[in-house]
Amino acid sequence: MIMNWLRNMMVGRYGIDPLNKFLLAISLIILIISNFFGGIILYSIALLVLVYCYFRMFSRNHNKRFYENNLYLRYKNQVINVFRKGKNTVSQRRRYHIYKCPTCTQKIRIPRGKGRIQITCPKCSTQFIKKS
Question: Are 30 and 49 spatial neighbours (Cβ–Cβ below 8 Å)?
Fold first, then answer.
């Protein structure tokens, strides 16, 4: 009976999406921090985030909530890609030297252990000598 009531109440509502999950996690983290430091300001911020999360969950404006979620996912993917790029660069530095072209600053990956070699930039065709 309670499940039917809850199901009927949620018909037409937006529900939970990745942004709501993120907001719930942030509010929980802020609540824990405010519990240790005793700050009413942090507690108020956590409650505001929680209220906004529930507002989004019970909203009937699907288009606006969908737009907010897509905006969140776009920024989240940009942040994740920055870390992936850094991780990829660090893993490649074991086997390769990465040089920049002195003319156009194009990054060029050269295998290690080849001695002094002449490198030709694939972008601007500038030639320079580096040790691999």
Answer: yes
Residue matched to tokens 């890609």: 81
| Digit-coded pLDDT (tens) for 7-55 | 787 788 888 899 999 999 999 999 999 988 878 999 999 999 999 999 9
* Pair 106, 123: CB distance under 8 Å: yes
Report how far residue 131's alpha carbon sits from residue 112's, in angstroms, rounded to the nearest whole number: 9
Q: Which residues contact 76 (CB under 8 A, 6 or more apart)?
A: 18, 22
| Dist CA 122 CA 104 (whole Å) | 10
Is the predicted pLDDT of residue 3 greater than 80, yes or no? no
Q: Report which of 79, 78, 112 is spatially closest to residue 97, judged by C-alpha positions.
A: 112
- SS3 of residue 61 by DSSP: coil
Sequence-ordered alpha helix ranges (H) in 11-96: 18-37, 40-58, 62-92
> Residue 83: pLDDT above 90?
yes
User: In a 10 Å sphere around its CB, with 0-12 CB exposed, 13-18 middle and 19+ buried, how is residue 102 labelled?
Assistant: exposed
